[in-house]
Amino acid sequence: MDIREHGSGNAGATNTFRVLGPKAGTFVMVVDMLKGILAVRLSYLVPIYDSPEHITQLVNLQIGLGLAAVVGHIFPIWAGFRGGKGIATLFGMVLAIQPLVALCCVAVFLMILFLTRYVSLSSIIASIAFPVLILFIFREKELFYRIFAIAVALMVVLTHQKNIARLLTGNESKVPLFKNRKNKEDEE
């Protein structure tokens, strides 16, 4: 089945969750995250970057490799350049480069998701939190990483234009959190 012919028409984990359920959605999300993690980990195959004096070059290489995975996810050659939005792959990439920042972004994502039940809004706000964390909280010194953080927020906002329009008109799909708990409460 081509997941892009159902639901939102997106090849990502969120649409897979909606169309095929949590097992398939979780599998897709994990695979998408692994793309970003593995891309960044490829940098460790280059022995020159193994020393502390080459940290800037290492981070730049990691960002380049991770971005290649994200762009490949959004525009896959073998799928007619129609992929997902790259959020899980991007998360995997950031998790591999700077785990604490990634976990802070997850906390922001989960908080917004819990409050609003909108995956798209949660993704957008977490991506905007990313450069805020990098620039002001963790005060990252690597210039390319700082530029990358700002570019990520802009990219996520750009790839979510349709979602933003649906949010503004009140037509965006919500995730049914605590659905089973609510059904049990209704039965009692």
Automatic annotation (TrEMBL):
The chain crosses the membrane at residues 24-46, 58-81, 87-111, 118-137, 143-159. Keywords: Acyltransferase, Cell membrane, Lipid biosynthesis, Lipid metabolism, Membrane, Phospholipid biosynthesis, Phospholipid metabolism, Transferase, Transmembrane, Transmembrane helix. PANTHER family: GLYCEROL-3-PHOSPHATE ACYLTRANSFERASE-RELATED (PTHR30309:SF0), INNER MEMBRANE PROTEIN YGIH (PTHR30309). Its main location: membrane. Probably interacts with PlsX. It catalyses: an acyl phosphate + sn-glycerol 3-phosphate = a 1-acyl-sn-glycero-3-phosphate + phosphate. The lineage of its organism: Bacteria, Pseudomonadati, Bacteroidota, Chitinophagia, Chitinophagales. GO terms for molecular function: acyl-phosphate glycerol-3-phosphate acyltransferase activity. It is found in: Cell membrane. The keyword Secreted does not apply. Belongs to the PlsY family. InterPro entries: G3P_acylTferase_PlsY. It is a multi-pass membrane protein. Pathway: Lipid metabolism; phospholipid metabolism. It comes from the Bacteria. Catalyzes the transfer of an acyl group from acyl-phosphate (acyl-PO(4)) to glycerol-3-phosphate (G3P) to form lysophosphatidic acid (LPA). This enzyme utilizes acyl-phosphate as fatty acyl donor, but not acyl-CoA or acyl-ACP. One of its GO terms (biological process) is phospholipid biosynthetic process. Coiled coil: none annotated. Its EC number is 2.3.1.275. It is an enzyme of class 2 (transferase). It comes from Chitinophaga cymbidii. This is Glycerol-3-phosphate acyltransferase.
